[in-house]
UniProtKB/TrEMBL annotation:
Gene3D superfamilies in alphabetical order: 3.10.450.50
A Pfam family per the record: SnoaL
Coiled coil: none
Cross-referenced SUPFAM superfamilies: NTF2-like (SSF54427)
Classification via InterPro entries: Cyclase_SnoaL-like, NTF2-like_dom_sf
Name of the protein: Ester cyclase
Top-rank lineage group of the source organism: Bacteria
Length: 147
């Protein structure tokens, strides 16, 4: 559905513009964002604002580049890359991560269910280990190769 694909694109554009009001208006009152790695759930418009400001506060210069959008019926899958410098505190359910001053590049996939022009659910997939390694908080693991 082209309309849902364009709607999804507008959400990521709003994040780049730090238009948190648009982001909160784009979610259904009972809508959720789930960080799949941790299972942390952000509920409703207030939760959407918290989720998005968490990233923006931690990476004030952060930008999103959409790599691919696939829409079918009420489902939209967005593959995107986030880049930024960790110059602010990142507030997470596991505790605050003070600014490291390091740059990070993360690849994400969000799976959204859209109904009546609002996001009802969003599941966000990204490699938290890669983020921690780029921020210097864990040792980077060497790539393995098949013999």
């Amino acid at each position: 559905m082209a309309d849902n694909a364009e709607f999804a694109r507008s959400i990521y554009e709003a994040w780049n513009n730090r238009d948190f009001d648009y982001l909160t208006e784009s979610v259904a009152p009972e809508g959720t964002i789930t960080m799949m790695g941790s299972g942390e759930v952000f509920r409703g418009p207030d939760g959407v604002r918290q989720y998005n400001t968490m990233w923006a506060d931690a990476f004030p210069d952060g930008r999103i580049t959409i790599d691919r959008v696939i829409a079918q019926d009420d489902c939209v899958v967005v593959e995107f890359t986030g880049r930024g410098t960790h110059t602010g505190t990142m507030n997470t359910s596991a505790g605050d991560i003070p600014a490291t001053g390091r740059s990070a590049t993360l690849h994400f996939i969000d799976v959204m269910e859209v109904a009546d022009g609002k996001v009802r659910t969003q599941r966000s997939y990204f490699d938290t280990g890669a983020l921690m390694a780029q921020l210097g908080l864990t040792a980077a693991q060497p790539a393995t190769t098949a013999d």
